[in-house]
Amino acid sequence: MLNKFLNLFRSSKWRSHSVIIVGIDFVEHQLAQALIKKGVKIVAFIDDEPWSHKTEMLGAPLRYPSEIAALAQRNRVQAVITFNQRAELLPKECIEQLNVNNVPIVQIAPNLHLEEQLTRLSITLDTYAQK
Question: What fold, for 16-129?
Fold first, then answer.
């Protein structure tokens, strides 16, 4: 009974969050599925391949890297998530604009277990929520 209550409490904290995920590989898909189960809104996935632009993955559109800052601002996202191998999809101008708008870029090592990825993201979101 206590575990059910704790799980409900933990999940409710995620419900008010919106994120952008950079990349469309397995690790991004796996993290996105876990976040969706917790109630997080995935605003977009970022990919630079022209044939995937504006298609959908897990109900979220695939967009170009040049659109990240505008998407983040328009949708008031709490974080942009990237795995280290996808950092090249974050243009310098985009990073600067996200910093100006106080949107954290959460870089996660792809070799971390899913629970560790969620913990890293949770800590970052909590830190920025306090600012």
Answer: Rossmann fold (3.40.50)
